Amino acid sequence: MSRNPEISIVMPCLNEAETLAVCIKKAQSFFHDNTIDGEIIIADNGSTDGSIAIAENLNAKVVHAEQKGYGSALKTGIEAANGTYIIMGDADDSYDFIHLMPFLIELRNGYDLVMGNRFKGGIEKDAMPFLHKYLGNPVLSFIGKLFFKIKINDFHCGLRGFSKAAYKRMNLKTSGME
């Protein structure tokens, strides 16, 4: 019998033992503090540093991507997710899984995709290379907004939420998603 939580948090993982426990505990706090039925899925991509044991000890569901690569790990994790909504984010503690309520509110309001914005929330010193922060990402985000007429200000933010139904409509055939 599979459980159908409201939200699945999917974290791709490749040797994230230093930060994985922090990320899982933040996600668990988000569920607990907001009385949300959720699951945490660690999509492992061949970790050899104890990440799998850390995830299992913290009661996260671990799935193993057969193909190597970030996109393959994400796809494996998303397909294993049972939630109505999915939020994906890296397991390196670059995103704060405690503050996901704005994502969930927008998803509950019917949006199929909600993206984070590192520029609005602040970027830690040295977390993003200078050229990416001041040229690459802003220029590419501007071009995307111009051509697609959407209000996304950080096209490259890895913290994203979407409905499982929207993911199924994409009907992805390839192993990569990035």
Question: How would you sum up this structure, described in words?
Answer:
The protein has 178 residues and is an alpha/beta fold. It folds into 2 domains: 7-116 and 158-170, Spore Coat Polysaccharide Biosynthesis Protein SpsA, Chain A; 120-156, no CATH class. Helix content is 39%, strand content 16%. Strands 3-2-1-4-6-5 form a 6-stranded mixed β-sheet. Strand 1, helix 1 and strand 2 (38-44) form a beta-alpha-beta unit. It is globular and about 45 Å long.
Biggest beta-sheet profile = 6 strands, mixed
Cα gyration radius (Å)? 16 Å
CATH domain topology of the largest domain: Spore Coat Polysaccharide Biosynthesis Protein SpsA, Chain A
CATH superfamily of the largest domain: Spore Coat Polysaccharide Biosynthesis Protein SpsA, Chain A
How helix-rich are the residues, as a percent range?
25-40%
- Please tell me the CATH architecture of the largest domain by its name: Alpha-Beta Complex
CATH class of the largest domain: Alpha Beta
Q: Total strand count, please?
A: 6
